[in-house]
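> Could you send the Protocatechuate 4,5-dioxygenase beta chain prediction when you get a chance?

Sure thing. Input:
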Amino acid sequence: MANIIGGITTSHIPAIANAMANGLEDTPYWKPFFDGYPPVRDWLNEKKPDVIILFYNDHGLEFFIDKKPTFAIGVADEYHNADEGWGIPTIPPVTGESDLSWHIANSLVEDGFDMTICQEMKVDHGLTVPLNLMWPGHNYGHVKVIPVCINCEQHPMPQPKRTFALGQAIGRAVQSFDDDLKVAVFGTGGMSHQLDGERAGIINREFDLMCLDKLVSDPEDLTKYSNFDLAEIAGAQGVELNMLIAMRGCLIGDVKELHRNYHAPISNTGSGLMLLEHTMPEK
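Output:
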């Protein structure tokens, strides 16, 4: 069967791509952030996953406010980044994995999730920045990616209890896939942050660290929060925690924390990096 070997949480701030492109990783502002990534890169290079299931939120590139699916999954063979408003970045396309993604899509619909299934799909920094963080220089072409997009911008948005259930359903779908594939799951996005309004710049470090602890030991406890709670406690964009919760839901077996790094503020955002090793349960 396909095997989920681990889960990773990471930021997807667009400024990260600019810092990497301009060689700023060792500057005082960025160094505490980038210093957290070598152990995760080493693990990925050692384990060599075949497929990445990547939870992210689209920031208006593929899905704007006039058409906003609650949950969308890509089933294409290739995904391209496109102009997000500051010029088209010259980065390579992302390789898709159509067989497993179609299997997951069918399984999710049977499991009661009304997914938007995308045979063509542009992907933004929410997906490409995490891949570049793990394989610098955009050297991610060897790994196949299944994008899963969660609405974190336009109300109504799915609640943490629903995103966790989505992750659990994806975990079961992977378990039921017969091909021998190694799968890693990425939950991407900021932790506490608010980018505009009277509370712009809010960082709730204590809450962020508690969430990282709970993602290891008691993820279902995080599902007691509503999106309103998250906005109040962690800022308006703190709802991106839903991607981390969905990732953790996919880990339906035993979990062991291997690495963690938390740093704030990077672009006025709490950035949590975590590597969780996972052992699938027996069928």
